[in-house]
Automatic annotation (TrEMBL):
Natural source organism: Mycolicibacterium fortuitum
SUPFAM superfamilies in the record: Heme-dependent peroxidases
UniProt-listed InterPro entries: A_dioxygenase, Haem_peroxidase_animal, Haem_peroxidase_sf, Haem_peroxidase_sf_animal, Oxylipin_biosynth_metab
Name of the featured protein: Heme peroxidase
Cofactor(s) listed in the protein's UniProt record: Ca(2+)
Record-linked PROSITE patterns: PEROXIDASE_3
Amino acid sequence: MRLFLTTTELIDRRIGWDKLPPVLGVAVLVGIRDALREHNLYDTCQGAPPEADPLPPSDYLTVRTANGSYNDLSAPSMGMANTRFGRNVPLTEGRSEQLPELMDPNPRLISTKLLQRRAFRPATTLNVLAAAWLQFETRDWFSHGSDPNRMLEIPRPPDDDWPEDTIKVPATAVDPTAEPGGSTFLNTETHWWDGSQIYGSNQQFQDAIRTHHDGKVCIDADGFIDIPPTLIGAAGGADGWWLGMELMGTIFMREHNAICDRLKAAYPNWDDDQLFNKARLINAALIAKIHTIEWTPAILGHPTLQIGMRANWFGLAGERVKELFGRLSAGDLLSGIPGSNTDHHTAPYSITEDFVTVYRMHPLVPDDYEFLSLTSGVEPRALTFSDIHGGANSRGVLKSQGVAECLYSLGVAHPGAVTLHNSPTFMRDFERVDEHALDMIATDILRSRERGVPRYNDFRRALRLAPATSFDEISGGDAATAAVMAEVYGGDIEKVDTMVGMFGEKLPEGFGFSDTAFRIFVLMASRRLKSDRFYTVDFTPRVYTPEGMDWIDRNDMVSVLLRHYPELEPALRGQRNAFAPWRRL
């Protein structure tokens, strides 16, 4: 194993995994992933995790708990809500920046000079549903919460049009369990891939979305989410709620209810809780499958990843072999992670601060939208993001336009490319639900510094990647941008923020985001499955039911869309991946 890891890292450094033939590239990626597992998992609890409330075994052995506890039966609090984010860099390097370093260079200046959208640059291999899906998923995985009583103040740069002297950003909520001087933060959501963007991360939220009849969640007679407005967007914060988020939530709440109908037909004597808990397991697993073998290959369109991500789910032996012969071994290489042995590798499972940073991909979100009809002869409807942001606006457009036509409109439109000079204009003066204005792009920069994510070159060194030696390397190939970047960072390339460097570096073929971000992705994408017993040792017909396993096996994003919105069939005819651009009718 040591020789394999050394060899694959050497090949990657000298040639690059993405320059190799796909089969060899997959082998090198396995080595990269295993080296990251060995060197880049750090426990911020340092062996002293919090305790989980005691529960009877019937509440967790074959069902997910509301707060994520008891996934690991030997460490019940692992991955539960309100536990610490982990790290992918050594704890000594993951230290929160303090003033004046925290504001050096000024995050608003970076937003203005390097990140704000000049002209929309599309990602032509994707549709806007891919952007909505990413936000839908990140709300499952993480949220920090903020403290409105503690403000971080970004000074207004000279000649800037911000209306006040400072941009006031609520500080990240403190970790009440942190050691003095510690740089740890709590995840308000469960760390698991458990559908908590739908089901919530506490019992109160979960109870509120349930009908308490036949296991179902609250969808009204017109097919819309039917929960109190104060709950809409509560998982992860109401500020990010927009039409794309509501579409995804609506689809998979309806999918939950469809699964309940299937289970009710097979097990007519099951009570409400039994139906709900099994449907949640099945729905969450289907979402994880869609992300693994559909969304990821769409945004990372390299031939090696087309093999690698399917191998994560089905194994290198392939889907057909698994279907005919079942698992060939308990390991994940040949038969995939689902159903393999659970393994946390070198640290207890958690979402990491570094993972949060690499998923800052706001350039995917367009400023402007065109809503189309599935019927010919109807004039398009032009709207801006502000028209579809917030619960009232989102629901209003869904009702007036129709859910299917909103899906179609996002399905044929391109998101933005994840690159410099392409972050949404509306985010530079974003009005939160509390009417407090923020530059969200500047806030992205500030958050990584505040939460102790190293700057770009140190981040790459921690991942055993070569640091950038010139601004030209991370300027998107544009000499003028390199000059501006050098000016903003005072000529010191070591100060470049991780997000800026990732947006500016050259991408592997077909990639929608950077190779630096991909290193965290290749580690954590497998880990979200491999650490979760409901995707490993308990991914069985006994736990999921035979009907549940069949539902997961036989469905994908296209089939889910067509089940609930069959009128999309002309647009989805022949569509292999729902996150690639659809046919324009």
